[in-house]
Amino acid sequence: MSAPARPEPVDRAAAAGSAAIPAAPFLPMTRPSIDEETIAGVAEVLRSGWITSGPKVKEFEARLSEYCGGRPVRAFNSGTCTMEIALRIAGVGPGHEVITTPLSWVATSNVVLAVGARPVFVDIDPVTRNIDLDRVEGAITPATHAIIPVDLAGLPVDRDRLHALARKHRLRVIEDAAQSFGSTWRGRRIGAIGDFVSFSFHPNKNITTVEGGCLVMNDEAEAKLAEQYRLQGVVRSGFDGMEVEVVGGKFNLTDVAARVGLGQLPRLDEFNLRRRELARVYFELLDAPAIRALGLQLPPADFTQSNWHMFQVVLPEERLTIRRGDVMANLHAVGIGTGVHYPAIHLFGVYRRLGW
Ligand SMILES: *Cc1c(COP(=O)(O)O)cnc(C)c1O
């Protein structure tokens, strides 16, 4: 059987088959929800005369710290830079190895290359789609300094096993929790436990600051270092003192962005509850025997710990007569947005050229 041609874009009102049924609006893969009160708050910040890092960032960090069980938290202009900074605080650099997963947004391992260290990819557990902790020990060498696990789609990696492993081998852990803000592990919030925990507030994530992220740390000494790496290494004292101790970058969050975050954070639980409801609907509709028979693999049905950042299905491509791109085009034609974000990282050109 030959594969059908790529479908033409269709008129959805016509496709619905009846003039009486209005066409449903296009359902994007993700869409931020910013309320009017937050928009008004942003306007207030814009009028205040102080629009970059200032009192709103401090307030946002205080709220984030409360959310993370009182641990020190600093906000940044991306999730990516928080991981790079955590690696720098942990002293990870040239000659060091960092164990991570090849199934993630490429930022997860790019930051390892950025500090001059080498990512070591450990395969995933095909059920959870997270790093297979059974295989981590076999990848540890004398050069291993840290591990960066990822809670893919919001499903948390087993924190008990992860941190027991890290303690045993004296490894630092930088949890890439970009997708798991609001997820829990055995009743405790991701962020409230562990070593370094990194969150992203990109518009695709469960709350947003437009662009932004935050890093949860262990103590004030780490937080002070993070502040230095965040802004050119600068340390100020008194009215006129200024010193530069480390080579920092330009990673500070603006007050405008922080005000968006302050409006989003109180709504996190509401957002995640809604995501959970939608995931239940997907299970009801996709768990039909006819669909199971096709070989479609659904994600683990975790309704206690996951924040349902995404709902990922694995297509049985070897049993399909069309390719993944055709499935996506067909869904698009009926008004359903999907996305591919995580080709295996070690197969990207730059990683191949570096020897993977
Ligand atoms: C979004 C994301 C990041 C990076 O976050 P940014 O805020 O876009 O820098 C890192 N890791 C994972 C798994 C992500 O999903």
General description of the model:
With 356 residues, this protein is α/β, with parallel strands linked by helices. The chain folds into two domains: 12-32 and 268-333, Aspartate Aminotransferase, domain 1 (Alpha-Beta Complex), CATH 3.90.1150.10; 36-266, Type I PLP-dependent aspartate aminotransferase-like (Major domain) (Aspartate Aminotransferase, domain 2). Helix content is 35%, strand content 12%. The chain has helices spanning 12-15, 36-48, 55-67, 79-89, 107-114, 133-136, 159-168, 220-230, 255-264, 268-286, 289-294, 324-333, 349-353; strands at residues 73-76, 97-100, 118-121, 144-148, 172-176, 184-185, 188-189, 196-200, 213-216, 234-237, 241-244. The strands form three sheets. A seven-stranded mixed beta sheet has the order 1-9-8-5-4-2-3, sandwiched between helices. Strand 4 (144-148), helix 7 (159-168) and strand 5 form a beta-alpha-beta unit. Helix 2 runs antiparallel to helix 9 (255-264), helix 3 runs parallel beside helix 9 (255-264) and helix 4 (79-89) crosses helix 8 (220-230). The longest helix has 19 residues, at 268-286. The radius of gyration is 22 Å and the shape is globular. It starts with 11 loop residues before the first helix and ends with a helix. Residues 1-18 have low confidence and may be disordered.
